[in-house]
Amino acid sequence: MPAVQTGDVTAADMQDRQIEKRWEQFHTWGPYGLLGVSTALSAVTAELLGGPVEWAVGGVLIVTALALQMWWDRTRHRRPDRGLTPTRTGTTYYIVRWVIAFVLTWINPFCAFYAVMGYFDADKLIPGRRRQRLALFLTSIVMAGSQSGGLPPKNGIQWAVFAGLLVANNAILMVFAHLSEQEEIRSEARAATITELERTNTALQQALDENAALHAQLLVQAREAGVADERRRLAAEIHDTIAQGLTGIIAQLQVVANAPDLPTARTHLDRASALARHSLGEARRSVQNLAPVALEHDGLPQALKKTVAEWAERTGVRAEFTTTGTAEHLHEEVSATLLRIVQEALSNASRHAHAGRLGVTLSFMGDEVVLDVRDDGRGFDPLALPSRNGHGGFGLDGMRARAERIAGSLTVESEPGHGTAVSARVPLVRHDR
Known about the structure:
Layout: H1 6-44, H2 46-49, H3 52-78, H4 88-107, H5 112-115, H6 118-125, H7 129-147, H8 156-257, H9 262-288, H10 300-315, E1 318-324, H11 332-353, E2 357-365, E3 368-375, H12 395-405, E4 409-414, E5 420-427
Parallel strand pairs: 1-2
Antiparallel strand pairs: 2-3, 3-5, 4-5
């Protein structure tokens, strides 16, 4: 499903509100403005189109129209929840205003400017489409009378002109009414679309939040699985090495206790001593794979910096440690894994690379941590990795297994004569507080 652009929906909604605000201003001030135009034109043409009686009646009607409009504004604003919603009160206001406009136009055709307001708010004031069309027809009578020279028509020709204009005005009204209905349908459809988009956005955001929570849960499960796997590995090693060695020592000491002569006793003591040394070596190797002491008081960046500095001092190789990005307090399992990978990489470099320079970089990159170890040593062919020996770590396979235990990965780039680059990429899991 494509992502829904909430900003576009919000902008369209704001534009609709701005248009509604402009219409509200027109419905509030439009009648005053049109009444003012009608009054001004009537005053200019009063000597041509009417006498004192018409003046008096027109003045009273104009004041009445002004009072009617002020009353309607107060009534409408007392019920802001109704606004321009069609009501019986709105119908009464429309009819009274039409009667005033009709009489004013009968006195002076220029007052039809005031009557034209009926075209714009019939649907806002009168409930029901039939009544709205009847109201529009009444308004068209006033407009056709004004356009044909005034009411009432004075001869047959003027009556014909009046009838033709009435038909033309209503034909135009029918066209615009149809267009208005279509626009209303489109507006309702767009409102429904916006509502559906907002619902889809909400569902999409919930899905993203659930995915993020699931991702975090998977990381925790991967870490717990790694811990369990490490415990099983240590248990197996202790059973297969240290426990067997101690069993052998006990057996040899029992033989010594029952030895018939000194040479026989010495032979078994030598065997027991060898088994003890071997078991001690196995114990040290197993302990090295537990939580590093270097992380007991320091965070990963500080522990790596000390580890690299101590290695450089011990081997005489120029080594540098760099941190990029915003350092985070990592989960102890992630920190221990990355430190062990660096220790193994440094051990491999000191034994095999014969490097003159080495660099370690720890990069915090959003939701993951990347550890790079590079040297300028003699390199090797990654397709022909050297076999493990019995003098320490687990080599590249062990480093890769460590990274994979916490849902990470390890890559090696090397070429004979061109150095080696080891890169570990693991999820950024913060320390549990």
